[in-house]
Amino acid sequence: MAKTLVYKFGGASVKDSDAVKNLAKILRNRLRKRMIIVVSAMGKTTNGLEDILSKKLKKEDFSENSSILKAYHRRICTELFPAGHAVFAQLENLFTQLNNKLEQELNRENYDEFYDAIVGFGELISSRIVAEYLCSQGSIVLWQDAREVIHTNSDFRFARIDWEKTKRSCQAIWKPILENFPILTQGFIGSDPKGRPTTLGREGSDFTAAILATSLDAGSVTIWKDVPGVLNADPKLFLNTRKFDELGYREAAEMTYFGASVIHPKTIKPLANAGIPLFVKSFLDPEASGTKIHENVSAHEVSTIVLKKDQILVSFKVTDFTFVEEMHIHRVYEQLQALKLRVNMLQLSAISISIVIDAQLFKLEQLLEKLKSDFEIRYNEELELLTILHPKAAEIPKFLDGYEVLLEQASRNTFQVVRRKV
């Protein structure tokens, strides 16, 4: 019996009507039973919903933002469907639900839960439009709500998967459907034990594909991107990038750990544990080979460059003339864990602990508040963290030219620098 295949299409691959038509073209000769299609929100919809939340939190008028977002999706539908198609009523219903939710109270205390309830609408709207379009073109798919099978805890915005419960739901609810029809669903979203919407972290749709694949013992996962495969650097930021034809799970995991944006960091581990290959292919050139990530691939020596923007450098200095000890590190990490903050770089000295974290709303001030009685704290915002894997010493100076270096560290295989433009 053929195994289930999982395809994931990101926001760029459904950003407008032409993109949706291209997705349908890709699926035309590939769609079959035992296939799951995972779609992200269209284009920059998630950013748009975050902007609405930001305005609401500041008690500013967000009605124009909401209208623009609705008009954007309606325009896509107008270009894909005839007037009077059922998708227009579905779109209206989803935006009514969204606006009703936005009328509820939002404050700092309930922000994360409110965020998950709002931002997930991007995927719900996108998946409805794509499913209806595929069916209108004669490709029969069944729309399914990912929240029915992706079970998480209640760590809103960074929910952890309940793997056992998720696998049971996938096997009981979706496996029988897949015997007869392909399923189209949403990435990024799940639900907690009380049925409340949760999200898996920004760009979490890749992770959704991996969760579903491992829960259903899939044959492979394919992520469709606007790049030809996994490259050694972001082509939007760096010249002369090179594509990897193959990557081992471990090397791919290392790249995502340091922030390579082509794959969500949590995607590799479950696939590696289950031995499920991951393909990264271009939706602009679907017949090209792309990159295959699997077991038993020799490590590459080509330098891989990862740039993370909007970083914060925080330094905690011990105030009682003692040296940094394990209890100081534990105290800092305890608060980082409580705030669900991930450390992108760590450096210790005799009297201070320096960390680099992503900028997140409220999180820095909450961290400072929790630790100000234990340390003297200093921080810098709006920085970049550059990581080079397998660095060549002769290449490093060009990445520092024109920048002030705030922190730097190197090992045999990794060079990292926190920098800002001068």
From TrEMBL:
Entry keywords, A to Z: Amino-acid biosynthesis, ATP-binding, Kinase, Nucleotide-binding, Transferase
Transmembrane segments: none
A Pfam family the protein falls into: AA_kinase
Keyword Nucleotide-binding: yes
Domain Aspartate/glutamate/uridylate kinase per the UniProt entry, residue ranges: 3-282
Gene3D superfamilies per UniProt: Acetylglutamate kinase-like (3.40.1160.10), Aspartokinase, catalytic domain (1.20.120.1320)
InterPro entries with a match to the protein in the record: AceGlu_kinase-like_sf, Asp/Glu/Uridylate_kinase, Asp_kinase, AsparK_Bifunc_asparK/hSer_DH
Pathway it works in: Amino-acid biosynthesis; L-lysine biosynthesis via DAP pathway; (S)-tetrahydrodipicolinate from L-aspartate: step 1/4; Amino-acid biosynthesis; L-methionine biosynthesis via de novo pathway; L-homoserine from L-aspartate: step 1/3; Amino-acid biosynthesis; L-threonine biosynthesis; L-threonine from L-aspartate: step 1/5
Catalytic activity: L-aspartate + ATP = 4-phospho-L-aspartate + ADP
Organism name: Algoriphagus jejuensis
GO terms of molecular function: kinase activity
Superkingdom, natural source: Bacteria
EC number, UniProt record: 2.7.2.4
UniProt-recorded name of the protein: Aspartokinase
Record-stated family: Belongs to the aspartokinase family.
NCBIfam families registered for this protein in UniProt: asp_kinases (TIGR00657)
